[in-house]
Amino acid sequence: MSSQIGPKEPAEQVPAWPGEEPLGTRAAARDPVADPGVPPHEYRVQDLDGRAAKRSERTVALVFTVSMAATVGFIAAFVAFPPDKIVYVWPLGRVSALNAGLGVTLGIALFCIGAGAVHWARTLMSDHELVQERHPVTARPEVRRRVLTDFGQGARESQLGRRKLIRNTMFGALVMVPLSGAVLLRDLGPLPEDKLRHTMWAKGKLLINENTKQPLRPADITVGSLAFARPEGLEEDDHDFQAAIAKAAVMLVRLEPGDIKDKRELDWSHEGIVAYSKICTHVGCPVSLYEQQTHHVLCPCHQSTFDLSDGARVIFGPAGHPLPQLNISVNKDGYLEARGDFAVPVGPAFWERG
């Protein structure tokens, strides 16, 4: 199929300068500001060859199909790869398999939708040039009607109804890509359930010295001293060590029993040894500065101050509630042990906290 393009229309006559003859087509060619006119329309191969148009349609459909497959791959990677799996990818080196899988598949899915839309527009949609004169910014009723007419004409010229294969695969790709975002919502983290309310402390758990890694005896803690402990069975090689110690770390201080003002604090202590959570109730910083004359502990982050002789109540700073106390006793072997978990959640407040 061929198309005969007619000769270019002569350029519009331009008024001459004073004393010169009128500028015609030849003169206009020498005028650097003359209107060059509209070049002849060049038809695309798809406009002239139905088989080429069909190939372009199949290409666009293939790209949209690849986008759908990449979205499925995104979901499969999310399910298949554990968060701690590391793989070697040249030239990036050792990277997270989960992050690499999610990034590559989502990138392919989004790229293919864009590439398919661009190829569709450049090869199959209408290629007719439209010239529209400038008009005032305010739209008149006839302009609005024209816009709606042009929109309808554009919808017809896009051949969305005719090219059903493209339409169906495009809709499929557009519908499936948001699934990537829906899956990512699940990756905000596991549901907390009641994990924030419990730690590794339980009845009979020994208090292990953070420095010596040995069980603590009452004689190891003298009046005015400060010691740090972790629950028995928590090792630094454990994969969840950081999460567990962030809730279970405790500090032990020995007071004179007569200096303890709070009755429950005295009942939960052993010979003046009290155990409190080391995690500040403001934003979770480690409380570690102890003043033995006043029995106050200070959080170095925002200067929240707690009175360990009075139930660890807040006496200064932004912390909202006292440090949780751990109920302790001594077992038959003479080692300090917990009588149970903390009675209240440790660390900063959260909205589910009752």
From TrEMBL:
The keyword Signal belongs to this UniProt entry's keyword annotation: no
Region listing for Disordered, in residue ranges: 1-45
One Pfam family, short name: Rieske
Keyword ATP-binding tagged: no
Family indicated by similarity: Belongs to the Rieske iron-sulfur protein family.
Function: Iron-sulfur subunit of the cytochrome bc1 complex, an essential component of the respiratory electron transport chain required for ATP synthesis. The bc1 complex catalyzes the oxidation of menaquinol and the reduction of cytochrome c in the respiratory chain. The bc1 complex operates through a Q-cycle mechanism that couples electron transfer to generation of the proton gradient that drives ATP synthesis.
Protein name listed in UniProt: Cytochrome bc1 complex Rieske iron-sulfur subunit
